[in-house]
Amino acid sequence: MADSGWLQWAYILAGSATGMTIVMIAQTASSYWTAYRVAPQEVASFIDTLDFSIEENEGYDRDVSKIQRLEDKIRLNRLLREIQRIGDDLRDDLNRLVREEGATTLRTSSRIMWASKRAQIEERMKRLDSLRMRFMMAYLGIIASIAEKQPPPPPPLPEKTAVYTTPNRLSAKKSLDDLPKRTPSRRLTTQAIGHHEHVETPHRSGWAGVVQELQMSPRMRARHASIEKLM
């Protein structure tokens, strides 16, 4: 009776272990099948991310060249070299998984085992992202320290705007009164054709002009005529 009881327990344990093994195998097969189906899309996404990282590395080189302090430049260069090394390793791993270098089509064996390969690539991608974040934080900290050491720029000068006032009646009248008055120009009249034109001789200046005007006046002529009659 005791032996039969132990046999029953052995059958129960073996059956439960077999069931758990079957469940684990089914879950593993399901994960591998899912990874097999999405492998082309994920490989293309990894390649695009890696290409973008390589393009950013070129911009990081230009940023490091602008730093003048030697210690800061060495620290940034060390981070940049580490980023480039991990990027090159990822590129080599992806090239070994695809059929042709630069393509996104996986090999059959690589696609079947993509579930295990994907975990390794994702771990390196996280490492690459963390290094890029560290580089950006270090670079921004250096730029902020340089900006704090420099004196602040002087405030901009206020712009002078000309004030325009509309003229009123009094100011307009005053400005017109201030203008110099011109003497009215003499009008030149022409007589009809066939008549003689009397052109006045210009007046002489000084006493000679006064004497000439007295001699030409009608009163002086009449007085000269009366004197001649009396004589």
Structural description of this entry:
With 231 residues, this protein is an all-alpha fold. The protein has a domain at 39-149. Helix content is 72%, strand content 0%. It has seven helices and no strands. The longest helix has 64 residues, at 2-65.
Characteristic terms for this protein:
rod-shaped, mainly alpha
Main sheet overview: none
Overall form: rod-shaped
Write the H/E string, N to C.
Answer: HHHHHHH
End-to-end gap: 202 Å
Strand content: under 5%
Q: Count of helices?
A: 7
In short:
With 231 residues, the chain is mainly α.
Task: Chart the SSEs and their pairings.
Elements: H1 2-65, H2 70-97, H3 108-112, H4 114-149, H5 169-178, H6 207-216, H7 218-230
Helix pairs in contact: 1-2, 1-4, 2-4
